[in-house]
Amino acid sequence: MPGAMRFVVVSLIALFFVSCFNDSPVVTSKGEPGRLVLVTSDQLYHEIDSTLDKVFYEPQPWLAMSEAYFKLSKMDKDAFKRSFMEYQTILFLITKENYEEFKILVPQIASADLEAYFNDESGMPIHINNKYAEPQKIYFLFARDAAEMKEKLLKIQDNLLTTLYNNEVKDFALRLFPNNADTSNAKFKQIKSVLGSGVAIPDNFELLKKSGEFYWYGERFSNEQQGIFCYRVPYSDTAQFNDEYLFNYRDSMMKAQVPGPREGTYMTTSASDVYPRFSEYQTINGLYAKKLRGWWTVQGEFMGGPYVLYAVLSKDNRYIFFFEGFIYAPNKSKSKNLRTLEALGYTIQ
Q1: What burial class does residue 254 get, using C-beta atoms within 10 Å of its C-beta: 0-12 exposed, 13-18 middle, 19+ buried?
Q2: Ramachandran class of 303: left when φ > 0, alpha when ψ lies in -120 to 50, beta otherwise
Q3: For residue 230, which of 323, 344, 123, 143 has the smallest C-alpha distance?
């Protein structure tokens, strides 16, 4: 089948796949950020378990400690039906050998279309939304047998991890602020009244600093902190979305607004190759945006941690709105809290 025609056929199947199996959920989904419920037969687990660990325990490159993309809850059909149907992110691994066992949990698909899924050697999983809870995504990855499931998982690993990760973070934002309640969030309105754009911030974050158009919210623990910065810059040229400009502008704001523990010290961005920088373009609530990741440090001090930053072009193209979440938690896991901060960025409007 020609590539273009095959894409159309698979796309039509996917639309049917999503629409035919989508009941109205009645509960809010469960699961901490980074938790992936993985469901398949015991036999398939036995054959591909080491491959699953290799794929899903891949460390996140923007964290200094070796923290995997996902924590797996591996289970069979019965365990899933007993306790895990309401989790936010679920992945079924389906082969021809175990299809009958899982048939009741898989949407009804015409035989010819199902065969196409089994035979697609490099295809990504199909997903459905909000079957048992909301927000929720349930993915189905098909392969003919265990050997081909191994090959497929390794072949699509990067794309699969990125897709699962990004969708999980976006859905977690809906769990934190469902039904667009973010626009009525007190801090959203507080920020929007001054900066023209707003972002929803949980109640446990207090305002630590307000200086002109710069906001700093924080949640403090013993020797730990989660922080949020919001500020803006007038927009005049597309070059302002270049990585160099965005990182440099961040550093200028941190130097001016975020002092370190001693006089003359201030927050900046690490230039070490040990902590690489990442960036990607995105669309957030219809707005043009760029997401940056890096490692903050304090000039002249041995302090640091990960941050995620969104630079979002305003609807009227007059300014770029900056939202940043950062973590200071020496020698502790940072993945779950960083994902939570990252999720808040998807409430920007």
Answers
A1: buried
A2: beta
A3: 323
